[in-house]
Amino acid sequence: MNQNKPKKYILAVDHGTSGVKVAIISTYGDVLGWEFEKTPVFLLPNGGAEQDPKDWWNAFLTSAKRLIAKKSVPVEDIIAICVSAQWSCTVAVDSNGNHLMNAISWLDARGSSYIKKKMKGLLNVSGYGLRKLLRLIKKTGGAPSTTGKDPISHILFIKDNYPDIYKKTYKFLECKDFMNLKLTGKFSATFDSIHLHWVSNCQDLNNIYYDDKLIKIYGIDKEKFPNLIRSTDILGSVTQEVAEELGISHNVKVIGGSGDLHMAAIGSGAVRDFEGHIYLGTSAFLLCHCPKKITDVFHSIGAIPSGNPEKYLLTSEQESAGACLTFLRDKFVFFHSSDGILHSYEDLDNIAQNIPAGSKNLIFTPWLYGERAPIDDHTVRGGFHNLSLEHNLDFAVRAVFEGIAFNSRWLLMYIEKLTGRKLDPLNIIGGGAISDVWCQIYADVLNRTIRRVKDPIQANARGAAFVALVGLGYIKFDDISELTEFSKIFKPNQENRAIYDKLFKEFVEIYKQNRKIYQRLNSNE
């Protein structure tokens, strides 16, 4: 780490599904303040989910101006902006940078039928034409999800259902890259953000490029994809208009940035090969960096270009984590507690910690909006299983915490099989990591030491700041471990080993026994 340079500051943007957070972070990784603005999600029939890009931009401007107005640092010492954003979103923009319709969210499954059709061949394996699958795995390390939730599926959906918009589209951009366009006026994508379009050859991290043979599979026009840069590259300076509105210098640089899971991996401090981390937010990720491209396509686990341009990131995502608790609190639970209302997630924590491990054999499956990994199935749905008159709301609350952890254990099983090594300890970040009871449940269910990173909800913002600092030459990626602190360590309670091993086995069996029922009930959604 270069300590000869004076302390400067990064405006780090953590743009999630539920809103936009802007933080000021020093060149030593200190979070000096942050502001947040909500952004709505519009759920539509047939698996649709959209957001208005105007809401994103307004949320950024509002939170950034409010933060800068606090004057916690000299505004002239803010040297760069770097965006971490929700991944697998699609924004269609014209040549002037105007969005042509709502952004299609990573939750959106309306492109499923289109990508399934494109993936089929003469000889099929799990819905994929064998020749296409082998070509994709060789060049990209994976293949499009047949759930329709990848950007390439979004684009196919737009092309078929909104041909006029497809024709007018100059570039299809990820969420992060749309924000960078608004900041600089430049159209771009990074090697990592473009990956879920499944059109870029990433066999060599030093030479990632659009592959004509891959693009031909989908029948999409190549010129509608943006130019590619590295996550640590300086895209440009903020426009004069943005500089004046925020009250910052026009010389403030905008760094390429990365998607949320890439930034979370860096902000978690688990930056060395096979150091794993868990992200607990609206959804959940279980990730680790690795030196080469490896893939388990049948369980939606694969190595993709990392936010560190010199490494791959082994990724797996479960669709719903904190979203299950939000559902429980806001839609499922009406009256509880002393005054009849559940006010906060802390209320849920207090309930869960007083219920014994295993929730009297009540099992919750967290597939409220389909699942990505380790089963790629948009028709599967959640529920409580083995519910009896012995149970009450308290048991249901703890079962939700445990069910989300069971799904992560399912993921970990396949990740460790793929890497050939045990991932222990695991760093944990995200809003869910604030909960002591949930961290302990994760330690017990996974039978792994869980290390909570200090200020876990700031991991994405810290990751964005670290990427910017590497790009500007202030630090190297290897320095990040030294800049990472842990607020608490959770060791597995071996007294809970037997009950969690038993329930995990049944958790997996619930899916196997019921998946055809889910398909029949939800195949048209």
Overview of this structure, please?
The protein is an alpha+beta fold and 525 residues long. Helix content is 34%, strand content 22%. It contains 15 helices and 28 strands. The strands form eight sheets. Strands 18, 19, 20, 21, 22, 23, 26, 27 and 28 form a nine-stranded mixed beta sheet that branches. A six-stranded mixed beta sheet has the order 3-2-1-6-17-16, sandwiched between helices. The chain has a three-stranded antiparallel beta sheet with strand order 4-5-8. The chain is globular.
Number of E-type strands: 28
The tally of helices reads 15
- What structural class results from the helix and strand content? alpha+beta
Radius of gyration: 22 Å
- Report how far apart the termini are: 52 Å
Helix content: 25-40%
Shape: globular
Unreliable residue runs: none
- Largest sheet entry: 9 strands, mixed
Strand content: 15-25%
pLDDT average, as an integer? 94
